[in-house]
Here is the input.
Amino acid sequence: MKRPELKLITDFSEARWVQEILYPSNEQYHNCLGTYIPVGFESYIAIRHDNNDPNLGTIIPLNFEKLILLIRDFTETPDTCFVGLWNGFGWNFESEFPELFDTLKPWKNFEDFFKIPDREFYLIQAEILDTLKIGHFVYNNFNYEKSNLLWPRDRSWFVVNEIDFEVTLVGGTEQMICEIENCWDFVTERFDPTVKNEDIFIADIDLD
Here is the structure.
């Protein structure tokens, strides 16, 4: 597999809007999904990571590649997307992509994380299809890592994979959200990020 073309971002000027628009993590906004995904999009939807198929008796994982291909059609800037990757995964992003950090080492440990309440991320710029190549290898097997934050430069949509959730959150135009909702590969539920919701993001949520 050809390695993705990634650019490490340490100038957060184009990402500052995310920090400014997210609800603060406090009692007033507790259980509002606007603390995780920016408010202001036309529509929002949650996509379950595991789809229990009652007909087959199997669990079908979220086809994230299909989601990426779908939302790619709803941005004018698919060649310039921003990816937030949590810095606390068990695999080492810096070891997997050392070329991104060559100018920093060995003089300092990387500390220029993109920060939102309770989370720190490596911020990366990439073509949207290259985001499907972010991950790590174990015995020559590639383990894909879903982007924790993902949005295009034109801000036409926003995708969140919070590490404690078993759903992917998506905000965008009503047309795009309808396409996701009508895709048989996805089990979905609409939500309003401004309203408190104690169920949709719980790990063992049952959307049936």
Summary: Confidence is low (pLDDT under 50) at residues 203-208. The chain has one domain: 6-190. The chain is about 15% helix and 30% strand. The two ends are 37 Å apart (CA to CA).
